[in-house]
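Run folding on both entries below.
>entry_1
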Amino acid sequence: MALQRIAEFEPNYKEEIFAGDDIKGFDVYAGDSDEKVGTVYDALVDETGRFRYLVVDTGIWIFGKKVLLPIGSARFDYGAHRVYATGLRSKAQAEQLPAYNELEPLDYDREEQVRGIYRNPGTAAAAAPVASTATPASYDRSNYSYDMDRPLYETNEQNHQNLKLYEERLIANKNRAKTGEVAVGKRVETETARASVPIEKERVVIERVTPVEAGRVVSVGDADFQSGEVARIEVYEETADIHKEAYVREEVNVRKEVVRSTVDGEETLRREELDIQTDGTPVVDNKTI
């Protein structure tokens, strides 16, 4: 239940909440009397924007002291720029309240001190105790909620005409964030390949044989002695031609695909409603403009 100053929660609070007005500086009067006790110094709201306290500077009553006034214990008169502190009726009660320091966190224990004094004004005899469903035995810091002290914190149309009523809505949105990156490149790998090619070589074979007529005498006329006679034979051989060539092995296409899914979420939503109380049989025209 962390509380914030109104300007921290909504910087444009004058226009958004008070229709161009500003409650800071409103004069604060005790109960419904004309006894001025100070001025409105600030307002505190919870994380949902609901008003919880007015910070009252009691400079007239107690010099230099600021105290908290629960919003349900205040009645606004916007025409006169006044706030009537219906729950703060005497100086003695204000003296009992712990001083508010905006530089210190407002924790559960400090709020409980404030609530205890408004529930049981103590020495402030003129102040009637505020009815509350909360008793010290029924809650602690782990389970307390402002609804336990509705008379201290609830707002109504009669006393808080310009205070807006808030409700929570479940907003479903999505954020696009980079989750990674894929880089596709090339690298060169080497390997040793072997190829075998059969080749042929021609060679000249010269054979000398002994003729059958070896040793036979040949007459002079049959013997044909000539010089320069040559037998020519062309000799061929094959050589291996082993080389490498580059060619396209495969083609790679890179693209993105969108995979769609649905994420379900569940929250408990709260909404403020007007609590209109009537005395007698007045005619109430409750309509939305």
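>entry_2
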Amino acid sequence: MQDFILNKDRFFDPNPGVRNFAREIYQTIKDLPIISPHGHVDPQIFVDNKPFPNPTQLFITPDHYVFRMLYSKGITLESLGIPTIDGSPVETDPKKIWKLFAENFYLFNGTPSGVWLNYEFNIVFGIKQKLNGENALQVYDELQEKINTPEFLPRNLFEKFNIEVLSTTDAPWDSLEPHKKIKDSGWKGKVVPAFRPDGVTDISNPSWKQNIKKLGEVCGFEIDSYKKLIQALEERRKYFKTLGCTSTDHGVVSAYAHDLGDVEAENLFANALKGTSNQNEAEAFTAHMLMQMARMSVEDGLVMQIHAGAYRNHNKLIFEKWGPDKGADIPTTCEYTKNMQELLNRFGNNPNFTVIVFTMDETNYSRELAPLAGHYPAMKLGPSWWFHDSIEGMTRFRQQVTETAGFYNTVGFIDDTRAFVSIPARHDLARRIDSNFLASLVARHFISIEEAIVIAKDLTYNLAKQAYKL
């Protein structure tokens, strides 16, 4: 069988005039350190620094990009070994799960997941065959052998990937014990937390009361009022900062932000405690808390991220049996000009404030987001996210925002991954797409090749580092 080798010019324009420029630009950035300022990798893997259990748990179980595609073709999550909330039985044979995955690997052709996985297998692990049902167990055994060697321990991979800094995402009640242990271990890898308070700012969350209780326990006082909630959040942000936190993250359906005033906020909090809140009240409270989070960011310097436009847990059957983050979050339309006006008018001109806005609604790039970021000093655009974190999605993002917001009102690339070994794959793809986009500008004489090389380094490294204060 012929070796499977990734083409060195993959994803570059077939026009040789553009491709040659893309190749030249890419060569200047391909080996730059990785800045990963937002993601969901479990920091405990760097504390334990043990071999990953098996290829199935490394590539399939944590990656909803992978199992959502398989599920869409009628392959059950039980058969893929995805753990259920109640512990009901699922497939436990990792080789059987891997065989099922390999037999259906063709489903990922043309998708970003396919691009990432091919990179991981071929570049990270040196697998020289394209995965399929016939070679599934041979590839599995080769991967298993490699992940049991010191070279593929989490800390060694972190260094091999040339990651300069990796940010996790953490609830306000998290102890951050893994972060403390990493810091105290003497290892030089930089892993920092990010503050995500959604579990206590969204009163429609079924676990809200439980989360409020956990937050109170870690703070040492009962949170029985809105005022106490604000106190707790301010204290926890301060604690997160002691372990290197530089950002907050807010996953909201709408970017609507509105200050209700303390009295109304207290009333809504009291209703939530009594269990009498309705959806309108929940949306109003979330809008109010976005204003409060922005206020806190002005005061403590944490960079605010707003991930808007995701309709979370759309598939109720999946949510009830497997919980959140199982591939059932779906994009929805999202308005920003009116919804963010109050927040931006109050804080958007403040030099101490940075808000990075992400969207799943591509129709908004040129209409609202680029003009807003091209005006307000505090606002930056996060890169194409989730379903648009792809070859064409990243290209569309650059095409739609650059003319109005430029390159320097964006923050480079953020991988937002749970799958640790996909990090270099995702960053390599982003570097190639940005190189290709810049090459097209050079070929059409918008910018010079010298300017393109400077911009490429900024998009790859400097902008994320600066925006996230890393």
